[in-house]
Amino acid sequence: MGRHEALRRTGRGGTILLVVAALILLAGGGVLVARGLQPEPAAAAPVPRSTFDLSPDGVADPVDGALPGVGAGGQARKPGPAAADPADRPQVPFGPLPDNSIVIPAIGVETTLDPLGLAPDESLLLPRDVGQVTYWTGSAPIDAADGGILVAGHVDNANQGEGALYWMHTLYPGDAVYVTKDGVVTRWKVTKMERFVKQALPEWAFQGSGGPRELHIVTCGGEIVKDSQGRGTYLENVVVTAVPF
Questions:
Q1: Do residues 74 and 96 make contact, with C-beta atoms less than 8 angstroms apart?
Q2: pLDDT tens-place string over residues 34-86
Q3: pLDDT band for position 118 (50/70/90)?
Q4: Are 34 and 21 spatial neighbours (Cβ–Cβ below 8 Å)?
Q5: In the 3-class helix/strand/coil scheme, how is the chain assigned residue by residue?
Q6: Which among 61, 93, 188, 231 has the fewest CB atoms less than 10 Å away?
């Protein structure tokens, strides 16, 4: 996710601006809204070739059996695109799950969750390291029966290269996602892949403790364009939704 990515939602009393960004420039200097100074985004970021929105009942569970345990973590495969052949697309972690992490075996993701909230200007804070992702502190409790969990991260940046969620756009329906927090393991299957132009995110991405039990994973994608102040920003947001199984 590059600089100045604006994620908008309509909240009570009006529109709340969530700037999932690295830097907002103000008169007299710059104010960081992420952990550390973030450079310009890299070249155009990938987007899914096609999107989908499927009923959870119509998506088969990718694995059976008990949840994996929390431990030191396994050796995940090198990050890369999800294979088209289901037989070549792993759905089980490569060993115990590290605590406070997100693991997506199909694309080789095993990375740390950084619990971050909103800055006073309503911007969503992101880790400086693009290899880590934010676990929004406004999410529903990890062990709740209802409510949404929001995870967000940079797709890439010019200095650090690919972010943890760079290959998210290649996931397929039913791919497994594991989220651990405070010793609790949760397991999810992908049911939606969506693209939102002009950074317009729906309210359900920030549902918190209300609504159905869902996991929303957000990154950026598309061409780099200039905003009204001439700053670089990605044109789109890519959002994956998953449900527990």
A1: yes
A2: 333 344 555 789 999 999 999 999 999 999 999 999 987 666 678 999 999 99
A3: confident
A4: yes
A5: CCCCEEEEEEECCEEEEEEECCEEEECCEEEECCCCCCCCCCCCECCCCCCEECCHHHCCCCCCCCCCCECCCCCCCCCCCCCCCHHHCCCCCCCCECCCEEEEHHHCEEEEEEEECECCCCCECCCCCCCCEEEECCCCCCCCCCCEEEEECCCEECCCEECCCCCHHHCCCCCEEEEEECCEEEEEEEEEEEEEECCECCHHHHCCCCCCCEEEEEEEEEEEEECCCCCEEEEEEEEEEEEEC
A6: 61
Q: Which amino acid is at 101?
A: S
pLDDT at 73: 63
Q: What's the CA gap between 76 and 90, in Å, rounded? A: 10
The two structure tokens encoding residue 238: 């890519």
